[in-house]
Amino acid sequence: MERGPQAGADHELAADCSRCFGICCVAPAFAASADFAIDKPAGQPCPNLGADSRCGIHQDLRRRGFPGCTVFDCFGAGQHLAQGTFGGRDWRDDPATARRMFDAFAVMRPLHELLWYLTEALALTPAGQLRDDLAAALAETGRLTDGTPDELLAVDVDAHRDRVNRLLSQAGEQARAGRPGVDRRGAVLIGADLRRAGLSGANLRGACLIGADLRGVDLGAADLTGADLRGADLRGADLRRCLFLHQSQLDSARGDHQTVLPPRLRRPTHWSLTVTPVRRSGGPSPSGRSSTGRSAGHRRR
C-alpha cells in the first residue's frame, strides 16, 4: 500500500541510487543536444537503464554523449519517493503506480532541492527573525515531502518555491552584507570574459554563465543560487567562500587543481589534472568597462 514517510523523519539530501528505481532515468524527458545523445520522451526508460535500475554506461557517460546525466542531482528525492512515498514498490510492477510515481517525482525533486538550499541558508544565518522564518520554511517543506502521493500531487510547487526563494534571497543578502558586490541576478553572460568583472560579493542568482571565462576570479561571498555554470572555465578561481554552490554546478563546469573549493565539495574527476597558471584580477577591464550581459530578470531564484 502506498504511504507517506513518518512526519519528522530526517531528510536525506544526497542521492542514493541503490535505494531508488532509476526514476530519474525514466520520468523526465530529454532532447538530443550537447547534453544528451538521444531524444527520450517523459515516462519512457532510457535505453541505457538496466533491469537492476542502474545505468549501463555510468562510467562512460561523458564520452558516450550524456554529460547532462552526470550533472543531474535529485537531492535525495529519488530514494525518498521510492522507499518512503511508495513504500518500496517498483514502478515496473504496475503501470498505474508508474504514472503516479513519475508525476510525484516532478514535485518531490524541487522540494528536496529547496530543502538543500534552506539547510545551507540556516547555516549562514545568525539567530533572529530571518533564521526563525527559514527554520519554519524548512519544516513546512519537509512536511510537504512527507505527504502521500495524492498530497504531493496537490502541492503548488511554484507558489511554495516563490515563498521560500524570498527567504533565501534575504539570507544571501544578509550573508553578503559585509562584501556588497555587483548585482547580476538573471544576467545572460554566455561566453563572457569575466576575469576583470570584480565578482567578489556579487549577486549571481539565476545568472546564465554558460561557457563564461572565470579563470582566476575571486567569487568570495558571491551568491550562486541557481547559476548555470555549464562549461564555465573555473581554472584557478577561488570558490571557497561563495554562497549556495552545489556539487552539480561544479560538475557541469571546467576547472583544475588551482581551483579553490569549499571543504564540503569535491573536485570533479573530469577536471584537468594540470595546473593552469592564471592571474587573479579584479576591477575594470583595460577598456574601462566591466564585462556584463543584458539582464534576463530573476530566472528562477
Notes on the protein architecture:
With 301 residues, the chain is mainly alpha-helical. It is 30% helix and 0% strand. α2 (77-85) crosses α3 and α3 runs parallel beside α6 (157-175). It has helices at 67-70, 77-85, 95-124, 129-145, 149-153, 157-175, 247-252.
Keywords:
301 residues, mainly alpha, 7 helices, disordered N terminus
Low-confidence stretches: 1-9, 278-301
Helix content: 25-40%
Oligomer classification: single chain
For the largest beta-sheet, the strand count, sense and barrel status come to:
none
Could you report the average pLDDT, rounded to the nearest whole number? 88
Helix and strand element order: HHHHHHH
* Share of β-strand residues: under 5%
The Cα radius of gyration reads 20 Å
Instruction: Specify the overall morphology.
Output: globular
N- to C-terminal distance: 37 Å
List the helices and strands and how they pair.
Elements: H1 67-70, H2 77-85, H3 95-124, H4 129-145, H5 149-153, H6 157-175, H7 247-252
Quick summary:
This protein has 301 residues and is mainly alpha-helical.
